[in-house]
Amino acid sequence: MPQPLPRTLRAAASALAVSLIALTLGGCGFVPDGSTPAPAAASEADLGDDDGYIPDGESVSPNADDLPTIANLDLDLRTALQRAAADAAADGVEMFVTDGWRSERYQQLLLDNAIRNYLSEEEARKWVKTPEESTHVKGLAVDIGPTDADSWLSQHGNDYGLCQTYGNEMWHFELAVRPGETCPAPLSDASAG
How many CA atoms are closer than 13 Å to the CA of 31, on its beta-carbon side? Predict the structure, then answer.
C-alpha cells in the first residue's frame, strides 16, 4: 500500500492545483464571485499611434498631421504650435512634440506608472492627471522638446497664445491666452488645477 504524502507536500500540491484551476478559469473570464474580471492593464507594448503614443526619447514634428498625437489636437492649438515651431526654426531652434493628444488608456497607463513610481497617488497626481481631467486627452496640451525649444516657447509662446501651464513641467504648454496677451503664472503642478 502506498504511503501518504507528507503534509507539507500535500499542501504544496493542493496550492498548485488551486493555482492551475484559477489560471485556467481566469483565462476563460470566470471569476468565482460572479463579478466581471478587470481587463488586463495596458502596457507601453500595447500602445500605438492610435493612442497618440510616442516612445520615450522620441519626438515628432509639430507638422506631422498624419499622426493622431498631432491630428487630434484642438485645431487652434495645432495651428498656434505650428506657427511657433516655424518661427522658432527661423531663430535656429528646432521644436518637437514629445507628447500631444493621448487616448484615455494611454493616460491611465501613465497615471498607473506614476503611482507605482512615486508610491503615492497624491505625489503622482502632481505630474499626471486622470484621463477625465487630462488636457492631453482633450487635445488641449502639448509637451515640447528639447530644452532650448521649451526655453524659446517660454519666452515667445504668448505671441501665439501658448503658455507653460505647470511650474514643475517646463515642457507642458496649452493655448491659454489670445496671441500677444500675457500668460498667467504657471500653477505649481498638475494637482493644483
Answer: 7
